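Deliverable D2.4 — example input (structure tokens):
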């Protein structure tokens, strides 16, 4: 049989273990509460930032819709625009506008003639490969207009001369064949590089307008965190890039 003293010692140890476990539980709960409070605070900061970003996006979209209506007489609803943001931090930075449908984009591009004299230019948002291909086609377009009276224009990724159509690859192979046969290349049109008669800085056909100037910006530039508001750019906007997702 155990003595009363041994029982007292055992009970005291059990009591001390209970007290210790209780304190550990309290410490764990306190640490969890502190961590949760910190996470809640961080989430609140993120929510506030997202709400501000959403408000800024809405202001940008509203401004873009108003300007498109004013300049081009094209009705663009807020639901037509996926995103819009300046590409850079300066007052003269371009603006990229992402549309949800290609139909609305075609409506906008078919009215680009109304921008004449405004100092605002519009261009498709193309990949680097597409820009290089278009740049090559424009060289052949100038050559065709200098050497032929037939109507010449670019549509999509092809050059049309009269009723014939050519891809860039076909045109380049044709030049190689002429050179291998000793035939001189077709003469380039006169004039300084980068200068064009009348409105030739932009080639238009069937509602599509292409920016002739060299474009070295990346296809998917990241949104600047300190970019100016679109309404601050206003008349200083020199180039607008349009992209559509459907």
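Example output (designed residues):
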């Amino acid at each position: 049989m155990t003595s009363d003293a041994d029982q007292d010692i055992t009970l005291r140890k059990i009591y001390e273990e209970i007290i210790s476990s209780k304190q550990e539980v309290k410490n764990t709960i306190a640490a969890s509460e502190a961590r949760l409070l910190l996470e809640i605070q961080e989430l609140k900061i993120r929510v506030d930032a997202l709400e501000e970003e959403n408000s800024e996006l809405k202001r940008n979209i509203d401004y873009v819709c108003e300007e498109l209506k004013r300049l081009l007489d094209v009705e663009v609803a807020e639901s037509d625009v996926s995103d819009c943001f300046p590409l850079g931090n300066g007052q003269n930075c371009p603006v990229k506008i992402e549309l949800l449908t290609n139909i609305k984009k075609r409506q906008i591009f078919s009215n680009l003639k109304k921008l004449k004299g405004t100092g605002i230019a519009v261009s498709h948002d193309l990949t680097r490969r597409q820009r290089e291909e278009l740049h090559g086609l424009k060289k052949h377009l100038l050559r065709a207009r200098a050497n032929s009276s037939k109507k010449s224009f670019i549509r999509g990724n092809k050059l049309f001369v009269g009723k014939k159509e050519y891809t860039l690859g076909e045109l380049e192979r044709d030049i190689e064949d002429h050179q291998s046969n000793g035939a001189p290349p077709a003469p380039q049109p006169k004039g300084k590089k980068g200068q064009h008669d009348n409105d030739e800085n932009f080639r238009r056909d069937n509602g599509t307008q292409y920016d002739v100037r060299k474009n070295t910006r990346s296809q998917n530039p990241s949104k600047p965190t300190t970019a100016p508001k679109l309404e601050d750019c206003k008349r200083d906007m020199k180039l607008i890039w349009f992209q559509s997702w459907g």
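Residues 153 and 160 are 5 Å apart (CA to CA).
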